[in-house]
Design a protein that fits this description.
The complex is a heterotetramer of chains A (333), B (322), C (400) and D (80).
Chain A (H helix, E strand, L loop, with lengths): L7 H26 L14 H7 L8 E4 L4 H7 L3 H9 L22 E4 L6 H14 L6 E6 L6 H12 L4 E7 L2 E2 L2 E2 H4 L5 H6 L5 E5 L3 H18 L3 E6 L17 H8 L3 H11 L5 H24 L26
Chain B lengths: L1 E3 H15 L3 E5 L15 H9 E3 L4 H13 L3 E6 L2 H4 L3 H8 L2 H4 L9 E6 L14 H5 L5 E3 L4 H12 L5 E6 L6 E3 L11 E4 L4 E5 L4 H13 L4 E5 L2 E3 L3 H11 L2 E8 L4 H12 L9 E5 L8 H7 L3 H11 L3
Parallel strand pairs in B: 2-3, 2-4, 4-5, 5-7, 6-7, 10-11, 10-13, 13-14
Antiparallel strand pairs in B: 1-8, 6-12, 9-11
Helix pairs in contact in B: 1-8, 3-5, 9-13, 10-11
Chain D lengths: L2 H15 L14 H5 L3 H15 L14 H11 L1
Helix pairs in contact in D: 1-3, 1-4
Chain lengths: 333, 322, 400, 80
């Protein structure tokens, strides 16, 4: 039994997005095992509907602030997979020239502000970006993604307070995957209804099924419209689940396999595919073609990353500060 | 013209607010209250709540908002009441502002200016009196400056606002009432400055310790020791050339730093000299720092904990073998 | 560096045989730790060390019988480097320990010199051996100024004073005769500049009648062959040494801000080197020697000074200096002290002058003795006591 | 030993004490210690050298007779 698909074209597009993210990350896991990708690698597999549902509701003028589980957001914000893959390889052609890695993907031209790995640290940043837009009278929205774990950080509360107090255009997107690393929601939140916390700061809240990209899209559209129209912040909770461990370092001992299996039954990709088939918007050949295209994009990116050069060690110290800074307005006084 | 350090900071801020609509001042009680050190008194009425933005007691939040606003195209001047409070915002300064340019492969600069009061001497106790400049000076990606003269108080803010990267300005609480004649205040944020030339020993210092170092040099001069006083001005990046040049002239060095000695900037200065100028040294360097104790409240104890003119004089005499 | 010597482990113990070492070079040792086992002929006894440090070199072999007081090992202070070179003192055997064991004059026995890095580099540039150079810096370290002084003085000491270091004399000896005057001049300039810069001098003088001494000496010499004749200068030197025994505050070194009195007077004698300046080598323990011995030693000293064959110890041991310019007709000498000494005694011309004796003016041979002394160490009162004692001794030449 | 040889011997002894002396520059009639810068010890060493070389005993009381080089040579000549 499946829900109907109100907009088949949108559905196919979102399915395509999710597939691209899924195939990319499956390759990432493989490359991690092959030691091509190192460091921390946090996979988004299972949660693709969140990024895929929210990002299409934003415009190019809007800002995106993401977490360290941001490969999907980066890709769907438009950063070329080549640049993402090269970054994970640590190559000079990466979207942060090899300085960031998996957790720190950036693209100024797409207003993609990272890629930050201190839980909650992106929230004050997003408030500031929104403050700048408000001050400069730019009608932009800043979408800030974070997890349920960040809701325990002071940064969330300070940022929610500031954004509501100053009526700043921030869309707070909480990807609630039920675990703060390995600690279950009920073990880290006194109030597990996360929308209640946000609502206490006097902002409108939405909550959607994060395993249903169309539901995410619908809720995000409303929330973004609210921010844009009302000027103040909004909070969107996406109840989701990651199928894989927190990171490649995580033995995943804190979850029952059965729980993971139960959630996998709700995998957003086959779920949407089935609905699109039912709606006659997708057949095997189309699906295979989408899959093949995603695979090809990944293969191309891996080949690109492999072939790319390393940043010369001689350039180690570049971009710490702006060249020739410190000149001030005169000499030492 | 003659003005106080406080008036110099105020004049610099006022000028910047008038000159550039992207500039705004944000912090706790900077607006209606007028600033905890009265630096922004009257600005709220003149520039309005958007330009003079009173922030809730959310150092992490509003300093981070300053970082974000800088990324978003504004020129925020964020005021943190004291360096002790800045620890609540350390994440945004150290993990975000300082690294964004590098971590993004050069795509994002963060032109935020963060001002904070530092130092002891006002009997404010162990949570409002510390000198943690070295914590920030440790971090690549930040530019850390300490105006020690009224001219620098006037000049460093516009220079900082001209920077494409984050600048942390430390204003020593003991300096706000200092009055000096100020001529041309335009300055860079690169070079140290010789505040008193001398030939026998270099006293290297910064910020609130500069007046003490100059007083010590005057005392020493009457005793036949001609001390050079070098004001670091910029704590990151250190002007190592100026430090080395001075020591190559005098062959002796005493570093005065209100921070604690362990892990101090003074230690960094001395270590740099050991690396670069060992064979120019004619005596082991000395550091005059704060006693290794949280700054106590009682006046006599606070005084005893801090670098003193007498302590500087004694250290100089020791390295001079006098 | 400190020395670990065989202690006396009983009132009747004069020597012992080392059975075994319980430590090895590089070991950290603590006060009270047993470091060796020694057979005292009564029993095998554990020998403790009484200070902390790091074992440098073990100088006694197991099985070796050694006297009490023998240095068995060197113990380094924490952080001190192991001596690089051989432990053997090089060059001339040194008759007496050089100065006080204060770490300076430095360099004896392979101890690492305490030299500032800048001074070290300057010394390397000048090719100077800093052994024996006195340090004036913190902790007695040799500073840039000390090296410059030594470098200038690499040939010479001082007018009426400055004792050049062993290395300086070596330099001078190595230099060609044509080079020596200039080198000597530099040395004197540096040492005297330093003295005048650092030492607050005070000056006293007294006219001393020598009628008795002249008569006594003339009579004494008349009875002797030329080889046994004694000069008045020797009588004066001996009198100085005897007076110093009574007023010891003028005899010794000022080091590290404190005066270190010398147990005996090694009197430096200023010897003009003709066109090449002057040196002030020491006559050792003058008070203990008779006039004939002193005369012999002085003659030898002058000959060797003029032929550049002085021993380093003679150049660093003087605890006070005597300068005699009477030969040139000078009335009174206002001397400059050679650091780290604290006084210089000057003698002017011996001449017959009107002098009041028993209430009447008489023609009496007199000499003006002067004292320049370091006001950091003594006051004029001490100096006056010294001149009075000198006066008295010169009236009793037969007791000298 | 004639007077010339004796003078040479005296000058040689003088040069041992004062190597810088040039024999040709010495004026036999001027006081020796003014010309050569000899102090009393030098003088004694000079006389000691003459004593060793020539075996002549010179009492201290005779020193005033030995002012010039000529006087020294004459004094020695008389006692050889």
């Amino acid at each position: 039994m499946t829900d109907p698909v109100p907009d088949a074209a949108l559905g196919v597009r979102l399915l395509t997005d999710m597939l691209r993210v899924r195939r990319m990350e499956e390759k990432c896991a493989e490359l991690y095992g092959a030691t091509k990708i190192r460091g921390f690698l946090h996979l988004y597999i299972g949660e693709e509907a969140c990024a895929a549902g929210v990002l299409p509701t934003l415009t190019e003028a809007d800002n995106v602030v993401a977490t360290y589980r941001e490969h999907g957001h980066a890709l769907l914000r438009g950063i070329p997979l080549r640049a993402i893959m090269a970054e994970m390889f640590g190559k000079a052609s990466g979207c942060a020239r090899g300085r960031g890695g998996s957790m720190h993907l950036f693209d100024a031209s797409r207003r993609f502000y990272g890629g930050t790995a201190i839980v909650g640290s992106g929230l004050p940043l997003a408030v500031g970006l929104a403050l700048a837009d408000r001050t400069l009278r730019r009608p932009a929205v800043t979408a800030c993604f974070f997890g349920d774990g960040a809701m325990a950080e002071g940064a969330f509360h300070e940022s929610a307070n500031l954004a509501a107090l100053w009526q700043l255009p921030v869309l707070f997107v909480c990807e609630n995957n039920l675990y703060a690393m390995g600690t279950a929601l009920a073990r880290h939140q006194s109030q597990t209804e996360l929308t209640a916390k946000a609502a206490s700061y006097n902002m409108p809240v939405w909550s959607a099924d994060g395993m249903d990209v169309l539901a995410v899209h619908a809720a995000a559209s409303e929330a973004v419209a609210s921010v844009r129209d009302e000027g103040g912040p909004a909070f969107l909770e996406l109840r989701t689940y990651r199928f894989r461990a927190h990171s490649m370092f995580d033995p995943d001992l804190y979850r029952e396999p059965a729980e993971v299996e139960t959630w996998k039954q709700r995998d957003p990709i086959p779920g949407l595919a089935a609905r699109l088939r039912a709606a006659g918007a997708l057949d095997d050949a189309r699906l295979a073609a989408l899959d093949a295209a995603a695979d090809a994009e990944v293969a191309d990116a891996v080949a690109f990353a492999e072939a790319s050069d390393w940043e010369p060690v001689a350039d180690l110290l570049t971009d710490v500060v702006t060249p020739a800074s410190g000149a001030g307005t005169g000499g030492a006084r | 013209m003659r003005m106080s350090y406080r008036e110099a900071v105020r004049a610099a801020l006022h000028e910047a607010l008038v000159a550039d609509p992207r500039v705004f001042l944000m912090g706790e009680d900077v607006g209606r209250y007028g600033g905890s050190y009265a630096v922004s008194k009257g600005f709220y009425d003149e520039f309005g709540p958007e330009r003079i933005r009173d922030a809730p007691l959310s150092e992490l939040g509003f300093v981070g908002a300053g970082v974000g606003a800088a990324l978003g195209g504004l020129r925020p001047v964020v005021e943190v009441m004291t360096v002790n409070f800045s620890l609540l915002a350390l994440d945004q300064i150290v993990n975000m502002a300082a690294v964004y340019r590098h971590m993004s492969g050069g795509q994002f600069s963060v032109p935020v200016v963060i001002r904070m009061a530092t130092g002891a001497g006002r009997q404010l106790g162990a949570q409002h009196s510390h000198s943690l400049e070295n914590w920030y000076a440790h971090v690549p990606g930040l530019r850390v400056v300490a105006p020690a003269t009224v001219a620098d108080a006037r000049g460093m803010l516009p220079a900082a606002l001209a920077e494409p990267d984050p600048v942390v300005i430390f204003e020593h609480v003991g300096l706000y009432n200092v009055e000096e004649e100020v001529g041309d205040w335009a300055c860079d944020l690169t070079h140290a400055a010789v505040r008193r030339p001398g030939s026998d020993v270099s006293i290297v210092t910064y910020g609130g310790s500069l007046p003490k170092a100059l007083a010590a040099a005057a005392t020493l001069a009457s005793g036949g020791i001609d001390a050079e006083v070098l004001d670091l001005r910029v704590l990151r990046p250190l002007d190592r050339e100026a430090i080395a040049a001075s020591v190559r002239r005098t062959h002796r060095v005493v570093v005065v730093d209100e921070g604690w000695k362990t892990g101090s900037l003074a230690g960094e200065v001395v270590a740099g000299l050991a690396e670069e100028c060992l064979y120019d040294l004619d005596a082991a360097p000395r550091r005059v720092c704060s006693a290794e104790v949280p700054i106590p409240y009682a006046k006599h104890l606070e005084d005893a904990a801090l670098p003193s003119v007498d302590g500087i004089v004694a250290a100089v005499r020791e390295v001079c073998g006098a | 560096m400190r020395e670990f010597t065989l202690p006396s482990l009983g009132a009747d113990m004069d020597s012992g045989k080392l059975i075994e070492w319980l430590v090895k070079p590089g070991d950290v040792v603590h006060k009270g730790q047993v470091v060796a086992v020694v057979d005292t002929s009564k029993a095998a006894i554990d020998v403790e060390i009484w200070f902390d440090g790091i074992v440098g070199a073990l100088l006694t072999e197991p099985g070796e019988r050694i006297d009490v007081g023998t240095v068995m090992a060197t113990i380094l202070a924490p952080g001190e480097e192991m001596p690089a070179g051989p432990e053997e003192p090089v060059e001339e055997p040194v008759g007496e320990p050089v100065g006080e064991p204060t770490g300076e004059p430095s360099g004896a026995g392979g101890v690492r010199l305490r030299v500032s890095p800048a001074a070290r580099r300057r010394a390397a540039e000048l090719g100077l051996d800093l052994t024996g150079v006195l340090g004036t810096g913190p902790g007695g370290a040799i500073t840039l100024a000390d090296v410059d002084a030594a470098g200038a003085a690499r040939a010479a000491p001082e007018p009426g004073t400055a004792a050049p270091t062993a290395s300086e004399v070596e330099r001078l000896e190595a230099a060609s005769p044509a080079e020596r005057p200039a080198l000597m001049r530099q040395a004197i300039a540096a040492a005297m500049s330093r003295s005048k810069r650092e030492i607050p001098h005070y000056y006293l003088a007294e006219t001393i009648p020598l009628a008795r001494a002249v008569a006594w000496l003339t009579e004494r010499n008349a009875a002797r062959p030329i080889t046994e004749r004694v000069l008045m200068a020797v009588v004066q030197l001996k009198a100085v040494a005897r007076a110093l025994a009574e007023v010891p505050g003028l005899n010794g070194f000022f080091l590290d801000g404190t005066f270190r009195p010398a147990p005996v007077a090694h009197v430096g004698v200023a010897i003009a080197l003709k066109q090449a300046g002057l040196v002030a080598p020491a006559l050792h323990d003058v008070a203990a020697k008779d006039l004939d011995t002193l005369m012999r030693e002085l003659t030898d000293l002058v000959a060797r000074a003029r032929s550049w064959t002085l021993r380093s110890s003679e150049l660093s041991d003087a605890t006070i200096t005597v300068t005699n310019l009477g030969e040139e007709g000078v009335e009174t000498v206002f001397g400059i002290i050679t650091p780290p000494q604290v006084a210089v005694v000057g003698f002017g011309r011996l001449a017959v002058r009107p002098f009041v004796v028993d209430g009447a003016v008489a023609a009496v041979p007199t000499v003006t003795a002067s004292l320049a002394a370091d006001h950091r160490v003594t006051d004029g009162h001490t100096g006056a006591l010294f001149l009075a004692a000198l006066h008295d001794w010169l009236q009793r030449p037969d007791e000298l | 030993m004639d007077d010339t040889e004796l003078r040479d011997a005296v000058v040689a002894e003088l040069r041992r004490i004062a190597p810088e002396v040039d024999a040709d520059d010495l004026d036999d009639r001027r006081p020796l210690r003014r010309q050569v810068d000899l102090d009393s010890l030098d003088w004694l060493r000079f006389l000691l050298g003459l004593h060793d070389r020539l075996g002549v005993e010179i009492p201290e009381a005779d020193y005033p007779q030995l002012s010039t080089l000529g006087e020294v040579v004459g004094y020695l000549r008389a006692r050889l």
